[in-house]
Amino acid sequence: MATPQFILDLRRHIGHAPLWLAGSSAVVVRDGLRGRQVLLVQRADNGEWTPVCGIIEPGERPDEAILREIHEETGVMAEIVQLVRVNVAAPITYPNGDRCQFLDHDFLCRWVSGEPQVGDDESSHTAFFDLDELPDMKACHRRRIETAIHPPQCVIMSSDAEYSDVTENVDVTYQEIR
Q1: Quick one: average pLDDT of 115-143?
Q2: How far apart are the first and last CA of the chain?
Q3: 3-class SS at 166?
Q4: Do 103 and 22 meet the contact criterion of CB atoms below 8 Å apart?
Q5: Secretion signal: which residues (predicted)?
Q6: Which ranges of the chain does DSSP label H, i.e. alpha helix?
Q7: Could you say which of 13, 82, 85, 105 has the lowest number of CB atoms within 10 Å?
Q8: What values do phi and psi take at 25, rounded to 5?
């Protein structure tokens, strides 16, 4: 993802110190000839296939951010079906030494119109894939797709990060308050 100006401004003050950032991602689905398809982008910086994702700009809501990112990165118009997961992503260290960690808002979205086309320099390819023919990708991206395709009844709180001082797989389910 291209680095937003507000992060570049922060980096001038804090250097490579860790940043806690809000992000949004989308599993955009449509009906294909052989069943459901999911929209993916191939990142230009590392060649990885991922669902559409991006940084939430200051003052922007997570749902607004992901609809903007979908259109900017792929030319596709989509609508949000539901928020399916809020996830603490694993910490990242970029080649330049910048460190960050994302609190991602994962949305299930429905394709409305448009065919995928690369819309910026963040991606080298974008396409819809049949669910049984997804390209190789990291386990965290497969989990994101699986969670969206089989959405929970309530938002899942999860973590892709590994910490030695906490339980590895902690899922929190909130009961209705009466």
Answers
A1: 94
A2: 42
A3: coil
A4: yes
A5: none
A6: 5-14, 62-74, 139-149
A7: 13
A8: -135, 160
> What type of residue sits at position 145?
I
DSSP annotation of 164 reads T
Question: Phi and psi dihedrals of 23, rounded to 5?
Answer: -130, 165
Structure tokens at 158: 């999860």
The torsion defined by the Cα of 85, 32, 41 and 6, in degrees rounded to 10, comes to -50
Task: Kindly report, residue by residue over 84-123, the tens digit of the pLDDT.
Answer: 999 999 999 989 999 999 999 999 999 999 999 999 888 9
Type of residue at 166: V
**Domains of the chain, CATH where assigned:** 24-153 (3.90.79.10)
Tokens of 126: 């974008």
Model confidence, pTM: 0.85
Q: Is the pLDDT of residue 169 over 60?
A: no
If you count them, how many residues does the chain have? 178
Measured between alpha carbons, how far is 125 from 123 in angstroms, rounded to an integer?
6
Per the rule left: phi > 0, alpha: psi between -120 and 50, beta: everything else, 4 is beta
